[in-house]
């Protein structure tokens, strides 16, 4: 599908006023900015997302005639600066962790090196794009872990913040191991499997609940999942079982039933017994309504025989941690390493690399933040050059490949960092050479 850029006006005004200030003083030297996440009390790890959108946008960055006309109408910018923007393209370098990589607080997950005006203007877009998609991918990874192999379906579209948010949630959750999405446009755009059942309104339009199930089964003889809690969940299960047995006689097959309210653990056990007694042991039980990693963990701890979960609102807005403290800080300008010393917001100067060391069994042992041109023995560098001279260096990986990368990364992360109720800080150090730069 053709990518339509959002355009460079997707930025905060102060990025453009700073750019105008640089231009007025002929400041065009090369700058490096590091993008990283500060600590988050609710998370032991994060998952990178959004890089594909970043690269596509930077490669196509142009100020249109309409953009320039609007900026002129504000009365803030002179003709000379607007003429500069008209000719401007992103010509810099981007080094980044690939999507699906596990990372930790304070580690640069992306660095931009470009002429100062170019590097400054893209700040807001980078923070918004990488921050949101990494936020959701991180939440989704925790849900996947809590489900312990049971499929999860993204049900969040109706509650996500806006259309683009809904699309990016679907992509980010699939990247982190979800099996499908209810979002049909995301299915088309990203090749994600789509999944859905019926709503209570469908059941209510029929004079009898059983008639709704029969009608749905006739329309989808091999892909029917009945929503059974519109009136009484246990009675709904009995009716579903009766229809399921009739379907089997006609050569069709009931795929599952869905619970959407009540005590999920207790109800799922009752429903499982009803289905099994009817000879429908292969019919799966789906559950939805308010699920995230915490509720999934809770119901499974109660021995709920639930086969798959629809995960919606709390995941789609990352309810327990609805934002990342993600920042984009200048670390080098005009050949000079720089750092910020504000209390509580000190930064590391210099172009950097993140090195990962593994245990003999392949699991993560520790990370070290070093200089970009360092090489640390026995460690794997995580930042890769993905854009050079404003051009993408490689074809973007498929979503399936990114998904596989996450799966491998997650399997190598220690179980103690996956706990939902315990803060565990992963060891991240600083190399001697990087420390020398800070002391200077």
Describe the structure in your own words:
By secondary structure, the protein is α/β, with parallel strands linked by helices. It is built from 16 helices and 19 strands. It folds into two domains: 13-136 and 321-439, nicotinate phosphoribosyltransferase (Alpha-Beta Barrel), CATH 3.20.140.10; 196-299, TIM Barrel (Alpha-Beta Barrel), CATH 3.20.20. It has helices at 13-24, 51-59, 65-73, 79-87, 116-121, 123-147, 163-175, 184-190, 200-204, 209-219, 233-249, 264-277, 293-301, 313-316, 399-412, 432-439; strands at residues 30-37, 46-47, 93-96, 102-103, 110-115, 152-154, 180-181, 224-227, 254-259, 284-287, 308-311, 326-333, 336-337, 352-358, 364-371, 379-381, 384-388, 391-392, 428-430. It has a seven-stranded antiparallel β-sheet with strand order 13-12-1-5-3-17-18. A hairpin with a 2-residue loop joins strand 17 (384-388) and strand 18 (391-392). Helix 11 (233-249) runs parallel beside helix 12 (264-277). The two termini are 49 Å apart.
Secondary structure: number of strands: 19
> How many angstroms does the end-to-end distance come to?
49 Å
Q: How much helicity do the residues have? A: 25-40%
Question: Regarding CATH, which class of the largest domain?
Answer: Alpha Beta
State the domain count.
2
What is the 3D shape?
Answer: elongated
Low-confidence stretches: none
CATH topology of the largest domain: nicotinate phosphoribosyltransferase
Structural class, judged by helices and strands? Answer: alpha/beta
């Amino acid at each position: 599908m053709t990518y339509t850029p959002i355009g460079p006006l997707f930025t905060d005004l102060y990025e453009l006023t700073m750019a105008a200030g640089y231009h007025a003083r002929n400041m065009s030297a090369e700058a490096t900015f590091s993008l990283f996440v500060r600590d988050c009390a609710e998370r032991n790890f994060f998952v990178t997302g959004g890089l594909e959108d970043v690269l596509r946008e930077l490669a196509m960055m142009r100020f249109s005639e309409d953009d320039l006309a609007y900026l002129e109408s504000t009365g803030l910018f002179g003709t000379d600066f607007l003429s500069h923007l008209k000719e401007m393209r992103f010509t810099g370098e981007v080094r980044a962790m690939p999507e699906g990589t596990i990372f930790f607080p304070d580690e640069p997950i992306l660095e931009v090196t470009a002429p100062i005006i170019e590097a400054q203007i893209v700040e807001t877009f980078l923070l918004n794009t990488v921050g949101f998609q990494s936020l959701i991918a991180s939440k989704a990874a925790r849900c996947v872990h809590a489900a312990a192999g049971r499929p999860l379906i993204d049900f969040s579209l109706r509650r996500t913040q806006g259309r683009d948010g809904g699309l990016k949630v679907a992509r980010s959750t699939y990247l982190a191991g979800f099996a499908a999405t209810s979002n049909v446009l995301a299915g088309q755009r990203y090749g994600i499997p789509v999944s859905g059942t019926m709503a209570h309104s469908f059941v209510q339009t029929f004079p009898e609940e059983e008639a709704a199930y029969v009608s749905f089964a006739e329309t989808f003889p091999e892909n029917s999942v009945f929503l059974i809690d519109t009136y009484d969940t246990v009675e709904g299960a009995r009716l579903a079982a009766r229809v399921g047995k009739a379907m089997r006689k006609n050569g069709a097959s009931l795929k599952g039933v869905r619970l959407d309210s009540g005590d999920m653990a207790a109800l799922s056990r009752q429903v499982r017994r009803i289905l099994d007694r009817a000879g429908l042991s292969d019919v799966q039980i789906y559950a939805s309504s308010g699920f995230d990693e915490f509720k999934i963990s809770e119901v499974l701890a109660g021995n709920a025989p639930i086969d798959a979960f629809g995960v919606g609102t709390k995941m789609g807005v990352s309810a327990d941690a609805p934002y990342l403290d993600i920042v984009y800080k200048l670390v080098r300008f005009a050949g000079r390493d720089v750092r910020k010393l504000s209390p509580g917001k000190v930064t590391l100067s210099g172009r950097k690399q993140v090195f990962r060391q593994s245990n003999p069994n392949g699991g993560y042992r520790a990370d070290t933040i070093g200089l970009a041109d360092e090489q640390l023995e026995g460690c794997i560098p995580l930042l890769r050059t993905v854009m050079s001279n404003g051009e993408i260096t490689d074809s973007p990986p498929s979503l399936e490949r990114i998904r596989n990368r996450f799966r491998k990364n997650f399997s190598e992360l220690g179980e103690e960092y996956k706990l939902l109720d315990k803060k565990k800080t992963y060891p991240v150090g600083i190399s001697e050479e990087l420390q020398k730069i800070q002391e200077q």
